[in-house]
Amino acid sequence: MKEAQLLSQIRMEKTQKLTLSVVADELTAAKVESLKTTIAAHPGPVRISVVLQKPGRWRVEAQLPGDYKIQPTDELLSQLATLCGESAVQIG
Q: CB 89: neighbour CB atoms within 10 A?
């Protein structure tokens, strides 16, 4: 091993996309505003896709506009997990 890097540093360098899964019945106007505020507070180069679903019935994925790109920091991932649930946030 030539040098040690923090996992958070590697994540910020390698992540190309964040996918946020949201159950349609749980998406309120207040949650949308909280998500917009949280995302806006962490600008960066990583695009975001939102998967909106009604489990067992339908599922649709949409990429958010470029204005909503983020930096995948520990703080952001924690805030998104709090808003939408641990399993709702995926990075790749």
A: 20
